[in-house]
Amino acid sequence: MKYILLAFLFIISGIVYTQPAFPDDGIVFNDSLVSRVDITINPDTLEWIYNNVDSNQEFHADFIFTSGNYIDTIQNIGFRLRGNTSRNAAKKSFKISFNTFEPGRKWHGLEKLNLNGEHNDPSISRSKINWDLLRQFNIPASRSNHVEVYINDNYYGLYLNVEHTDEEFVESRFGNKNGNLFKCLYPADLDYKGSNPNLYKEEYWGRRAYDLKTNTAADDYSDLAHFIDVLNNSTSAGFLCEMEKVFNIYDYLKILVIDVFTGNWDGYPYNQNNFYLYHNTETDKFEYIPYDLDNTLGIDWIGRDWANRDVYDWQQHGDNVRPLYTRIINNNELRDQYSFYFNQFLQNFINSNFYNKLEQLRAKLEPYVINDPFYPMDYGFDIDDFNASFEDGTIGHVTYGIELYCNTRKYSALSQLDVNNINPVINYISHVFPLPGEDLWVKAFVEDEDTSPDVTLVYSINGGDLLSLVMHDDGNHQDGESNDGIYGGVVLNIPWNTAIEYQVTAEDEFGYSSFMPCDPVHIDLYPSNEPELFINEIMASNSTTIADEYGEYDDWVEIYNGGTENIWMGDKYLSDNPANPDKWQFPDITLLPGAHLMIWTDNDEDQGTFHTNFKLDVDGEEIGLYDSETTAFFPIDTLSYGPQQTDISFGRKTDGGSAWVFFTNPTPNSSNIFEAIAEFDERIDVFQIYPNPVKDEIVYFNKPVDLLLLNSMGETVMNMKQTNSINTKELIPGIYYILTSAGKSTKLIIQ
Fold first, then answer.
1. Helix, strand, or coil here: 679?
2. Residues 494, 525 contacting (CB under 8 angstroms)
3. What 3-state DSSP class applies to 270?
């Protein structure tokens, strides 16, 4: 056996559909104060940027972020304008990129920031209010906060700092980033154009309406074409079940509620514009991600009274189609669930607490608006307009103040809503694969007017009779917290060679019920044949050793087939996270006996099938090679490694062997011939350690030795036999000496 922590791995793996995550605001999006962003850039460059507003060229700049007592400086960032019509505004918006000139660099897990001038909005707050409402309604929307922006020590005004939607965003919410992410801009109506995926690559004004932002080398739109096909062409009777297979439809109902409440006429339902679609590879469903929410809460440019518009007739009239809106509204079950969510939103979020927060926000921002030199330049706004924008309204395109708009919209919506009893909403159905002879846990999120519906797990084993068991929301059945809407149930003692099918049903006190998913979840649980595959050699810091096909020196992992049979790799996985064993799937390739396979762990799948969606950590971590889903991602081989040194690999002393050593002459894609490497051969006079100096880490040796560890006074601190390492965490900082039994010594510095 070559695996470790088996029980832990299975307990947390095999999730079918997990709820999205909600990252903390952290220091970057701290909303308790107004942070400060300083940009230092060559004045001539800044002038060029302002004279060439349509350019997306990024320029070198330095970035300082100040939030209370926290100050951080990032040099050599990318800086440019962002936006569409706002590029021609006096108060412009900016994009900060941390990785343009420093590839792979992130700042607090972010590659980019959007600094939005919000020049249309005298409150500079409407987008912020939308983002907060979405997150309160359990939609994984962007984080945001207000910042004051200085460029070359000149105050450029109050800005909204909005989290960028990219692969880092989707990974932080959905746990994966290898799916297709489409930025959808006008006229992205989701209308069916045909089965050919290339039909959805149409360009308008020099860009695509459905602009693929990830996996651009493959440029494969087949998943989007399939989603649009299902949306438009599934029968009325089968619409809900077919859509549930390809789209997170229940979360979209909540997004639709907020779009209609806030009067977001520049989004999808009215203007076929401003949203993202992400193909979540964990669920194989598309997620709808909101974007660009400034034209809301009473801002109008086209003469519509958004506060009183019919909540069931929101789409633009005429020949324009909006199938994602109209098909939902025309489906009785989804229409009732939309109405349920709308009523729930109004009752729970648009209340005295909401209005108190509006006043607190206005008071917090007012001092920064008074001194904003660009605030009045576009529409003549002054501080009176700022304050009025939170209350009754101001001028021109701002037909309502935020408070007046919300009051009007709430009561008009309540008068329009047709609230009926609903079939319980069942979402986020998930399970974990069992160990042989252990238990299968299933959980699901359920929402209904009845806060305690009867939730049941219905299942069959090996095609036998349907069985059922009660699921609980009591905090004791792997269901999260008590009364959080998540229900858990367990099927006991599942052996290998078992096929299981299950669904979840919920029935409320009024007799309304749901059965989800429409097609049962099917699990085949078979034992792994334990193929003789090995993680054979790794390099977590490659500077000059070997370049990939793009000439880049990236991290790599070598896999070795130590058996006598061909092994198909297409159903196997590589991961740097035991909680997510199916993080990266091997391509359709067969590995011959004795063959080696090198994988570039560079977090850049766009570069080809042998490039993963993660990087190795030079400071050490665990990586694993996992079998297929039907074996519950059985861990074929795992490695926990410590700190690594640039251009020195860590590998098995011989191919597939048990001893691990460092190689100054790495052997990527070829046999590990330890004896041929003079620096690490068996001669007694060779002894190397890494890292040195060291701080609170483990020091590794190239070979096991007997040693004495002496302090600077010559006193013996440790006496160890045949060891490969020393744990320095408990040692006092200072200079030490390692003396081997062969009489060789080296100095060790502990910081």
1. helix
2. yes
3. helix
Match 């060679």 to its residue by tokens: 497
pLDDT of residue 1: 32
Label residues 476-487 b or e (16+ Cβ within 10 Å = b): ebbbbeeeebbb
Are the beta carbons of 46 and 152 closer than 8 angstroms?
Answer: yes
User: pLDDT tens across 14-41, in order?
Assistant: 344 468 889 999 999 999 999 999 999 9
Residue 247: CB partners within 8 Å, gap ≥ 6? 227, 230, 231, 285, 286, 288
Judged by DSSP in three states, 580 sits in: coil
Please tell me the distance from the alpha carbon of residue 127 to that of residue 120, in angstroms, as a whole number.
11
The residue whose two tokens read 């700022």 is: 386
pLDDT at residue 631 in the model: 82
Rg from Cα positions in the chain: 29
What's the angle, vertex CA 56, arms to CA 51 and CA 62, rounded to 5?
A: 85
Q: Which residues of 430-454 are buried (b: 16+ CB within 10 A; e: fewer)?
A: bbbbbeeebebbbbbbbbbbbeebb
Q: Enumerate residue ranges in the chain where pLDDT < 50.
A: 1-17, 675-686
- pLDDT score, position 7: 27
Task: Identify whether 691 is preceded by a cis peptide bond (ω within 30 of 0).
Answer: yes
Q: Give the β-pairing of 596-600 and 590-591.
A: unpaired
Instruction: Confirm if 70 and 35 have CB atoms less than 8 A apart.
Output: no
Q: How far apart are the first and last CA of the chain?
A: 38
Q: How far is CA 502 from CA 10, 429, 457, 460, in A?
A: 19, 10, 7, 7
Site of tokens 């008009």 = 412
Beta carbons of 303 and 129 less than 8 angstroms apart: no
Stated as kind and residue range, the H or E segment containing 260 is helix 249-262
Token pair in block for residue 110: 């972010």
- The rounded distance, in Å, linking the Cα atoms of 645 and 544 is 12
Rounded to 10°, the helix 239-246/222-233 angle is 160
For residue 283, give the nearest of 623, 629, 18 by alpha carbon.
18
3-class SS at 397? coil
Number of residues that this document lists for the chain? 751
